[in-house]
Every structure is written in structure tokens, then in C-alpha cells.
Design a protein that fits this description.
The complex is a heterodimer.
Chain A (H helix, E strand, L loop, with lengths): L1 E10 L7 E11 L4 E5 L6 H8 L7 E6 L2 E2 L5 H11 E4 L11 H6 L9 H14 L15 H13 L5 E5 L7 H16 L3 E5 L3 H4 L6 E6 L2 E5 L1
Parallel strand pairs in A: 3-8, 3-9, 6-7, 7-8
Antiparallel strand pairs in A: 1-2, 1-4, 4-5, 9-10
Chain B lengths: L1 H20 L1 H37 L4 E7 L2 E3 L5 H5 L5 E14 L4 E7 L9 E4 L1 H7 L6 E5 L5 E9 L5 H4 L2 E3 L2 H8 L8 E6 L5 H11 L3 E5 H39 L3 H12 L4 H33 L6 H4 L17 H28 L9
Parallel strand pairs in B: 4-8, 5-7
Antiparallel strand pairs in B: 1-2, 1-9, 1-10, 3-4, 3-9, 5-8, 6-7
Helix pairs in contact in B: 1-10, 2-8, 2-10, 2-12, 8-12, 10-12
The chains are: A alpha/beta, B alpha+beta.
The complex binds adenosine-5'-triphosphate and magnesium ion.
């Protein structure tokens, strides 16, 4: 589904604190599979996710989505791709405070111009699927960590993306909630979604839900299972 | 099209929600902003209305007024004086006027007693301006008594109350017949207060004045144009003082607005990042923030302007009367005729709303074009 070729990424390029976080990455993220990136802190996992997710551009190299080269597209098109095809689950959840769970979930639907009732119906469906229907009107800052993450998952799914991107999805959860998350992940994979995530957590990377683990170190891939 | 409309609706919804989320901050800003518009609008509305009023007063006054000076003081025009002026080319009409001030101990206010040139009231009848009508609670056909300076009481019947159209002109007027006027003030027969000359051609006015000065060395011609200019400079000067005082307030507001608007809080920056990451376009984010700024500034502008209008035209600009009005001594209290000038509103709008919108948009724009990948890092 997504192919990365010779990806390198520099921060502060040209300045004396120039730093190459990625040093030549070739990776094929297969469709309908769960792929996990594993590696020590600072190895470039998050950086790689931002490039796959079109949140940032590689300094060198090509990214192609379904065979189409997208690394040279202007910002507007990347935004469009992010909105239609990707769903993001951030490590800090990144919900917007002061808004209800429901309002947070339908936020990515605004720029699509989809009628509100449709968005709301879909959001309710997603909330019910994650057993969170009773908290739909609650302001997100009042939700527990696990509930917040489920809201974030619903938000990632509102536009029905093909690819889900999750950065350290279990880092803020206890092992019980982490197991619940894996169950959700299994269902999502069963629906045929492509999932790319990063994790240190053995509970995630050793799980049978994950089809493929890719190891990273110093901005390079290292094989894996 | 429908899609586009739906998108705009979402944007506005979100804008309203985000305004409501930061209630305290936005209300504070709105308050200060509204106050500023209120002050500025009050000053401009007030001075503009005063100027209009003055122009109206002078429009109906003669081109040249001749006073006689004795020892540098305004004195009565003696009999035969007008004949001495004789015929000056360009003068259409020459008439002696009778008027004087009367201090009414009952209402403790000054009134202008005057014999009008046309539609002179019948003997023992007077026509009064709205000020007297108000302060003495008088109406048509009521009787009223004044004690003259010589101590005698004079009674009159009110034949008419002048309309409100231009109160500055008519508020304190009391019009009466020549016979009544002379009797009331013990005004010697044949004497006049001053002489009004009508000059048809404005170019002739200066020549007429020169000839007058030559013919009568003790005469002082007062030209309408000069009076107009004096008024204008007085108003400009006073307006300048108030604006100078206000500029301190404006500066303070500027700093506050800049601080509030441009110093995007970390929270707001994060929010912009999140919106972009989940697929909002840069344009959407900017539009949303633009709506937010516009809503605040428009509300402030409208509320401030309406409040200023009410302040100036319904409460007689009570807040700056002492600074701005030179006539306060003569005219106890008067109501300005409501007047709004399009250019004036536009100028005010431009100087209050546009700087704010810019102060809001620049930092938003900066935040909105940065890469959204920062949201991935806590
Ligand atoms: N904006 C930036 N400017 C400079 N350096 C950066 C920036 N973002 C990341 N880096 C550096 O790039 C390297 C890779 O960072 P990245 O966040 O991808 O690591 P990671 O594998 O996700 O680590 P962790 O497991 O701790 O999340 C790190 O050394 C980091 O300091
Ligand atoms: Mg990371």
C-alpha cells in the first residue's frame, strides 16, 4: 500500500545543529496488515510515522501511495490524503479540550462537508462499538485515559480511512487497558484496515495481532520478524 | 455548493464553540475593545454634530455684522449711524437688530431676548425656544412673567414654541416685539444692538468690510466666514485634546490586543497543529481564526458605536461636555440633532477593526503554515 524508497530526514538542515533522524529507509507497508515499528528511543520511529502519514516530507527519498508518488505533492493534496485515507491515533491522544467527545470525533469530518447528521450517526456507531456511548456528551478533559484513547480511535475512524497510524498507542495505558486496546486493534485488522504503529511494549509487538515487526536503530531498519 | 455551505457552517460552529471555550479571555478583550470604540466614536460623533450645528447657526446669520465700539467695548448703535454708512455697493440689505441677554433668576440660566426680523410676535406675546419651555415647564398660551433689570415685572403670553430642529440656535431664544423689547430693557429709542448686512456676492464681503471701516472708524465688522473659521479651529483644537488623551488609551489597547491576539498560547498552537494533522486545510484554520477575530471586533464595533450614539445624542455627551463644548456657559443644556456620516463610520471602522484583524491573523498564519508533525511529539 505504501512504499518508502531511500528515505532520509534531516532536522535543522544546513545549520550547525543539523541532525539526520532517518538514514535511508526502504519499507513496504502492506495493505490489510498490522505493521509495528520497534526500536530504542531516538531511533526515528515517530519521524518515520510522520513521513508515512504525510505530516512531514522526507528530505531525501520517495513515498508512494498505491503506486502513486506523493512525496512531491503540494501541501493541499497531502492534507486531502491525510483526511481521506489516514486516521491518526497520537500518543498524547491530542483531543481538543473543552469540546465533548462527540464534537472531537466529528472534527476531521468538517472539511469534507459531509452532512452533520451523517457524521453524528457514524460517531455514535463508533462510540457504541467501543462501549463509550454513555460518555458521548462528556467534555474530553473529564474522561479517563482509556476513555480518551477510545475517543481518539473513534476520531481516527470517522472518515473511514484505509490506513491507521498509531504512535505508542499503549504508552499511556496500564496493562489491562493495553490489552483492551489490542482487542480493538484485532477487530480493526479484521475489518481489513492497514495499521502502522510504533511501540516498545512487548504486549503489542509480541502479540499475534501484529503481522510484522520492523526493528529500527539510528534511523535505519534492522530486519525484525 | 451545498458542500461548501456545509463546510462554512462547520467553520462558524467551531468558531463559536471555541469563542465560548475561552469565555473569560474573549469577554475581557471584548470589553476593552468596546470601550475604546465607544470613546472614539463618541468624540467623532460629538464634534461632527457640533460642527454641523455651528454651520447651521451661521448659515442663517448675515454675512457681515457691524458693531460699534466705544473704548474697545461693544456699544449701542446710536440714531443716525445707519444713515452714515449710506449706500455701499454690494450690500443688499441693512437692518438694525435688537437683542440682549437676560439672566433668569428662577431657572438660573441665560436667555437671549431678541426682536426677529420677520414674523414678529404681537405686543405682549413671545415665542420661546425649547430650553425655556423645558426649564419653566411652559406650553403654548401659558403666561410667563420676567423681572426686568430695572426691577419691573413684565408679563407675556407664549404664542409659540420653536421647533427642536437646531437647538443650539434656538434653545435659549425668546422672541418679542420691538415695543416690548425696548420697554423691558429700557432701550433708548432709535438705538440698536448691532447692524446686519446681507451681501449677495461672497467675493464682495471683504470690500464691504474695508469700506465700512473707512466710513466709520469706530465700527467693527464681523465677517461670517471668519466666525466659521474660528469655530472650526476651536472644535479642531478641542477634538485634538481629547484625541491626544485618547491616544494613550489606544496605545494601551494596542498593546493588550497585540499581546492577547498575537501571543498565541501554547494551547492554541497545539490546537492548530491537531486540526491540521487530522486533515483541516491551512486555509480552513486561518478562516476559522479569522471568523473568530472578526466576530470579536465586529461585536465590539457595533456595541461601542451604538453606545456612543446613545451617549452623544440622548445623554448629550455627558462624559466630555466640559472639554468639548465651549458654549456651556451660555447654553445650559441642549440636545444635538442625531447625525451619522458614512465616511466617518468607515474611518472609525478602518482604524479599529483592521489593526485587530491583522494582529490576530499574522501569528495564526505563521502557526498554520508550520508542518503539522509537531503534534506527534508531546
Ligand atoms: N523537530 C526536531 N528537531 C530536531 N531534532 C528532532 C526533531 N524531532 C525529532 N528529532 C530528533 O530525531 C531523532 C528521532 O526522533 P523520534 O521522535 O523519531 O524518535 P523515536 O524513535 O520516536 O523515539 P521515542 O521512542 O522516544 O519516541 C531524535 O534524536 C530526536 O531528538
Ligand atoms: Mg516517538
Amino acid at each position: 500500500m505504501i512504499k518508502l524508497q531511500g528515505i532520509r530526514k534531516a532536522f535543522n538542515q544546513g545549520r550547525d545543529n543539523e541532525y539526520w533522524a532517518l538514514n535511508g529507509i526502504d519499507l513496504h507497508v502492506e495493505a490489510n496488515k498490522v505493521t509495528a515499528l520497534r526500536g530504542p528511543s531516538g531511533s526515528g520511529k515517530t519521524t518515520l510515522l510522520t513521513i508515512v502519514g504525510c505530516l512531514a516530507r522526507p528530505t531525501v527519498g520517495r513515498v508512494s501511495l498505491m503506486g502513486e508518488d506523493i512525496s512531491g505533492l503540494p501541501e493541499r493534496f497531502l492534507t486531502e490524503i491525510r483526511r481521506r485515507r489516514f486516521g491518526f491515533i497520537f500518543q498524547q491522544f491530542n483531543l481538543i479540550k473543552g469540546l465533548s467527545a462527540l464534537d472531537n470525533i466529528i472534527l476531521p469530518g468538517y472539511p469534507t462537508g459531509r452532512p452533520r447528521h451523517e457524521l453524528l450517526a457514524r460517531a455514535d456507531e463508533l462510540l457504541a462499538g467501543l462501549k463509550l456511548g454513555h460518555r458521548r456528551e462528556a467534555k474530553v478533559e473529564w474522561l479517563s485515559g482509556g476513555e480518551q484513547q477510545r475517543v481518539a480511535i473513534c476520531r481516527a475512524l470517522i472518515n473511514d480511512p484505509e490506513l491507521l497510524i498509531a504512535d505508542e498507542p499503549t504508552a499511556n495505558l496500564d496493562s489491562h487497558l493495553a490489552r483492551e486496546f489490542m482487542a480493538i486493534l484485532r477487530d480493526l485488522a479484521a475489518q481489513g484496515r492497514t495499521i502502522l504503529l510504533t511501540s516498545h511494549d512487548p504486549l503489542v509487538v509480541d502479540s499475534a495481532v501484529v503481522h510484522r515487526v520492523v526493528d529500527m536503530r539510528d534511523g535505519k531498519l534492522q530486519g525484525g520478524r | 455548493m451545498k458542500l461548501w455551505l456545509e463546510k462554512q457552517r462547520y467553520l462558524i460552529d467551531y468558531t463559536l464553540a471555541s469563542l465560548a471555550r475561552r469565555k473569560a479571555r474573549n469577554l475581557g478583550l471584548l470589553l476593552v475593545y468596546t470601550l475604546l470604540v465607544f470613546m472614539l466614536a463618541s468624540v467623532t460623533l460629538y464634534t461632527h454634530a457640533l460642527r454641523q450645528e455651528a454651520a447651521r447657526v451661521l448659515a442663517s446669520s448675515p454675512e457681515v455684522i457691524v458693531q460699534r465700539m466705544v473704548a474697545g467695548r461693544h456699544d449701542l448703535i446710536p440714531p443716525g449711524y445707519m444713515e452714515k454708512i449710506g449706500r455701499i455697493r454690494g450690500v443688499q440689505k441693512m437692518e438694525g437688530r435688537l437683542w440682549g441677554y437676560y439672566y433668569d433668576t428662577v431657572t438660573r440660566a441665560n436667555y437671549t431676548f431678541m426682536v426677529p426680523a420677520v414674523s414678529v410676535p404681537a405686543n405682549n406675546e413671545i415665542i420661546v425656544g425649547p430650553a425655556l419651555e423645558r426649564s419653566r415647564g411652559l406650553a403654548r398660551n401659558n403666561g410667563v412673567t420676567f423681572r426686568s433689570y430695572s426691577g419691573k415685572l413684565h408679563s407675556f403670553v407664549i404664542a409659540e414654541v420653536l421647533p427642536q430642529a437646531s437647538e443650539l440656535v434656538s434653545a435659549d431664544l425668546v422672541l418679542m416685539s420691538e415695543e416690548n423689547f425696548r420697554a423691558f430693557f429700557d432701550y433708548p429709542v432709535g438705538h440698536y444692538t448691532d447692524i446686519a448686512l446681507s451681501v449677495a456676492n461672497p467675493q464682495e464681503v471683504r470690500n464691504v468690510a474695508l469700506k465700512l471701516a473707512a466710513a466709520l472708524p469706530d465700527a467693527r465688522p464681523i465677517l461670517r466666514d471668519e466666525v466659521l473659521r474660528t469655530y472650526a479651529s476651536i472644535f479642531d483644537w478641542r477634538e485634538g485634546i481629547v484625541l491626544a488623551l485618547l491616544s494613550a488609551a489606544i496605545l494601551a489597547f494596542g498593546i493588550l490586543a497585540w499581546e492577547k491576539a498575537s501571543g498565541l498560547s501554547a494551547e492554541e498552537k497545539r490546537e492548530i497543529g491537531i486540526l491540521k494533522a487530522i486533515g483541516w486545510e491551512t486555509g480552513d484554520v486561518i478562516k476559522m481564526k479569522f471568523w473568530e477575530g472578526l466576530l470579536v471586533s465586529l461585536t465590539a464595533f457595533l456595541v461601542g458605536f451604538v453606545a456612543a450614539y446613545v451617549h452623544v445624542f440622548h445623554f448629550a455627551a455627558a462624559l466630555f461636555e466640559p472639554v468639548l463644548k465651549g458654549w456651556a456657559v451660555l447654553y445650559p443644556r441642549f440636545q444635538l440633532s442625531p447625525h451619522i456620516d458614512g465616511v466617518q463610520v468607515a474611518t472609525l471602522f478602518f482604524f479599529t477593526v483592521v489593526p485587530y484583524a491583522a494582529a490576530v491573523l499574522v501569528p495564526i498564519w505563521k502557526a498554520a503554515i508550520t508542518d503539522p508533525d509537531t503534534v506527534m511529539r508531546g
